[in-house]
């Protein structure tokens, strides 16, 4: 089912610089060529996915339901009418998929483990599913056989349904922390001999805000459902931070001495520019927006500190406090995190509003937009309304994070969907994506070589077209096209472009 790369000379023709430039100018009316700037020779290039988005096999071999199995079936109107029961069927096609990605010369594959596949009911006293463990065992073995490093996310949004039913999952900090710790212990025990890079949680901001305030992601808590949107998101964030810290401590004390791996968390976030560059209020709003988005998790996790002062001030008692014991835990564990995992896609303008905010406002009354006070757009739109091409903002965010946390950064997700990609003929010729990733890699090069930021790797989102949560099978982020009727995989030109570009860039720094 996997395809072979096109012959070398046609590859050269398809990826000529001219094609890329034309594609970009058509969108922007200006030109911003990719420069193929150098990257360090040891820079890691990878692809990324998440279990629910690619695996399928939702009810196979003893897997328990997750909140996403429930949500996509009970509320299909919130997921474009679609579910991921089968999606890419990576569960059955995994061996071929690893062979396919190895053709792109990737160093890394970042994937997530489905908690309810290996502990169907999720809890610390519940049975373990050996068939689920066998799936991840063979995936990891196959990757290593192909010389690809497995980078494993423990939690990418698919909470076991029973944990949610029992105590509301993240809403009960003590219970969740204990169950998550037990699940992590099982993963380290079974896979830690071969997995050397662990990520506890993917994008805690999204779980807190989009799943417990806006309600666009499972379990869909929002005002309309009568949940407490004023406090729930902050409780959820608190639980994630403490669960992360206690798993980090367990890994460091019990597993790391022997297994010698590293561990951290992945935070997402846009970069924010002031809506009106001459307004001090908007300049402050842009900074504060990043503190509320990234500092919320980054300050406690990486600095071992309380939440940013601006959050405490604005949110008051909506924001849980850390007890003396919890502060100690954060202080002990913050330096164990070996890298900053960054998911990044786009930049926005931030504008300070003066009208009274909504009772459950989570932004400190900051409005986000794609157009500034002068009518200038932040960048050309992709096929996702929220995602515009803004490589300069990416460079600035790399600097912002480096300055605040001084940790080597791994870009654990970056990519975009293009227009009209359902049709494979259109999809393979993904000039827009090639331009986007090319420019974003140039930004990393500048951040490293001109600004002195430490960036260790870049993983494209995503390896395969997949189930894009609330947007179903609409937007496609893959460097490999999937025909969801036949499940045929067809690499897009960006896959070959990236193979070539990473080779060139890393050769240039030698
Ligand atoms: C990541 O989330 C996820 O880790 C990954 O699973 C996902 O497939 C990928 O990005 C692509 O989206 O319409 O303005 O309300 C990124 C965070 C959260 C970004 C929801 C888009 C909707 C923005 N995403 N958000 S909006």
UniProtKB/TrEMBL annotation:
Naturally occurring in which organism (per UniProt): Aaosphaeria arxii CBS 175.79
Keywords, ordered alphabetically: Glycosidase, Hydrolase
GO biological process: cellulose catabolic process
Highest classification ranks of the organism: Eukaryota, Fungi, Dikarya, Ascomycota, Pezizomycotina
Class of the enzyme per the UniProt entry, highest EC level: hydrolase
The keyword Lyase is annotated on this UniProt entry: no
Family: Belongs to the glycosyl hydrolase 1 family.
Reaction(s) the record says it catalyses: Hydrolysis of terminal, non-reducing beta-D-glucosyl residues with release of beta-D-glucose
Function: Plays an important role in cellulose degradation. Shows hydrolytic activity against several glycosidic compounds.
Keyword presence, Hydrolase: yes
Enzyme Commission code: 3.2.1.21
GO terms of molecular function: cellobiose glucosidase activity
SUPFAM superfamilies tied to this protein: (Trans)glycosidases
InterPro entries according to UniProt: GH, GH_1_N_CS, Glyco_hydro_1
The protein's name: beta-glucosidase
